[in-house]
Amino acid sequence: MDDMLSRMMQKRRGFTLVELVMVIAIIGIMAGLLGPFLIVTADALDLMSVQSNLQESAQAALERMSRDIRRLRDDESVVNASSSFFWFYDVDDRQMIYILVGNTLVRVIFPVTLPLTVLADHVQTLLFRYYDDDGNLIPSPVVGLGTATNIRRVQVDILFADGSKNLVVEDNIRPRNLRHESDRFF
């Protein structure tokens, strides 16, 4: 009896061809069902990574710009201001410009040293808007070194694009050292 049992156990050590084919077929069916789900999940993770990188880049660039523009020296220190760039002196008497060069947002500090300070890549649009004391949009601001500007608030809009992913960020900046009508005593 023991001899017969040991012979049966020796015969059952491997798998039959039918068993192997069945396992391979089951694994194939499972892979076919789970494959599209895994691809969609990988695409979603990729999209989240791109969005996260754009968001981080946008936040850092906007914070840097806001910090510098708030430090505007006084209302006679705006050299030039247009919808595509902002050129001014800060409280440390540094002359700087924020401008878009290709798809790169840069901060230029005078005297110019290379490489330029890159704030963000993948920028499609940089737009400055200027407002007066009453909150009215100024189409053509009064600017020029030594000339009192009528700018009291600066709105910055930045459109970031990385492939088919877009992100728009905006900030309203009120420079500290500008004379505001609300600050005057009568």
TrEMBL record:
Keywords: Membrane, Transmembrane, Transmembrane helix
Signal peptide location: none
Residue intervals passing through the bilayer: 20-39, 96-120
Pfam families to which the protein is assigned, alphabetical: N_methyl (PF07963)
Presence of the UniProt keyword Transmembrane in the record: yes
Ranges in coiled-coil conformation: none
Source superkingdom: Bacteria
The protein, known as: Type II secretion system protein GspH
